[in-house]
């Protein structure tokens, strides 16, 4: 009987915790089947993954909020808050600075060029059998490598579907999904001025001439078809994780080329620190009065875990609004407070800390309130 072939798989995520963690969750089954999985990671993420993943570490000259202090997710959240991409502003207000920061500014384009060069070096040295990329734009080294590749889509798949570049009239795509990151309902009017404005911003993301100018004139690659930011027609597969309730008809219409996992890392403990944190946490809470009192006889006996993640919890107005609402209930809440943990207090029926062992807590509580992050 012939031996089973072992593949070398190179994973190329953008440098953000949600993308790295989601890709690790998806690729763990490859490890369990005996394949070799190697991650190309910025130095801030060194040692972030469990030991059985291999790492190729590189450094960037452009600061993209990731400091080498072991908290890249929090660094990103604070950076995005300072850029007005996170916080109380509307989706329409957030899109332009987001596009400048990630796609259109000289710094963003320089970062893309550096990441592309490091990817090319890793491909040349590792000679992988398969590439899996999770980035907001397609690094040209990937489609030009000749290596089969998968688009791992851990941001909203809505960003990559919808009206095509030359479809400027509503009548040309009347059943399109709401524009990505717009907050608009599927049942909303496609003629709504906000819908049109948000679709125009999404088009600027999907079909970006500034990015393709850099691709062609600076890096020496041909432009992508229709100036796309991430053409995935040539990918072996587009893998995404989206609740089936939000798996809009236009996304499902992509067919077998697009595969919905629904969740990226249901069984994966992300990060080496979590095991020790869990042990310390469970020891600590046994001595806390909060966990033994009954809220003056009003406690329902129900536990709720509340987490808005690093990105959501950076918005203090949001956190205070949520906590004000839960303080009126008679349940107990365990709160992951996030990067700005020292800047706000918890009500009497809440207890929490800057970072909590989420995968340990989930089986212990009755309800979870979450931002639904990756």
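^ Assign residues to that structure.
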């Amino acid at each position: 009987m012939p031996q089973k072939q072992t593949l070398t798989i190179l994973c190329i995520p953008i440098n953000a915790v949600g993308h790295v963690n989601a890709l690790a969750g998806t690729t763990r089954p490859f490890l369990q089947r005996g394949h070799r999985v190697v991650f190309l990671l910025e130095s801030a993420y060194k040692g972030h993954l469990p030991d059985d993943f291999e790492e190729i570490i590189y450094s960037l000259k452009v600061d993209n909020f990731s400091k080498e202090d072991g908290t890249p997710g929090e660094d990103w959240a604070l950076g995005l808050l300072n850029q007005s991409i996170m916080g109380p502003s509307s989706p329409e207000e957030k899109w332009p600075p987001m596009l400048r920061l990630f796609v259109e500014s000289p710094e963003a384009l320089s970062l893309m060029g550096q990441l592309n060069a490091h990817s090319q070096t890793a491909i040349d040295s590792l000679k992988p059998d398969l590439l899996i990329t999770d980035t907001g734009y397609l690094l040209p080294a990937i489609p030009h490598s000749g290596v089969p590749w998968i688009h791992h889509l851990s941001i909203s798949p809505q960003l990559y579907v919808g009206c095509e570049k030359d479809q400027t009239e509503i009548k040309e795509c009347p059943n399109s999904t709401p524009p990505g990151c717009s907050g608009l309902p599927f049942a909303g009017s496609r003629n709504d001025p906000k819908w049109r404005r948000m679709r125009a911003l999404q088009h600027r993301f999907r079909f970006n001439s500034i990015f393709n100018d850099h691709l062609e004139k600076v890096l020496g690659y041909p432009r992508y078809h229709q100036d796309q930011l991430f053409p995935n027609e040539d990918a072996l597969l587009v893998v995404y994780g989206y609740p089936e309730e939000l798996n809009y008809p236009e996304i499902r219409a992509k067919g077998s080329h697009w595969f919905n996992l629904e969740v990226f890392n249901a069984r994966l403990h992300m990060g080496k620190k979590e095991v020790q944190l869990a042990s310390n946490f469970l020891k600590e809470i046994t001595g806390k009065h909060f966990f033994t009192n009954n809220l003056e006889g009003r406690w329902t006996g129900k536990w709720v875990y509340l987490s808005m993640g690093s990105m959501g919890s950076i918005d203090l107005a949001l956190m205070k609004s949520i906590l004000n609402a839960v303080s009126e209930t008679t349940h107990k809440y365990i709160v992951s407070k996030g990067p700005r943990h020292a800047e706000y207090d918890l009500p009497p029926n809440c207890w929490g800390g800057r970072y909590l062992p989420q995968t340990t807590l989930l089986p212990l509580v009755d309800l979870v309130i979450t931002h639904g992050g990756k």
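Residues 106-126 form the longest helix (21 residues).
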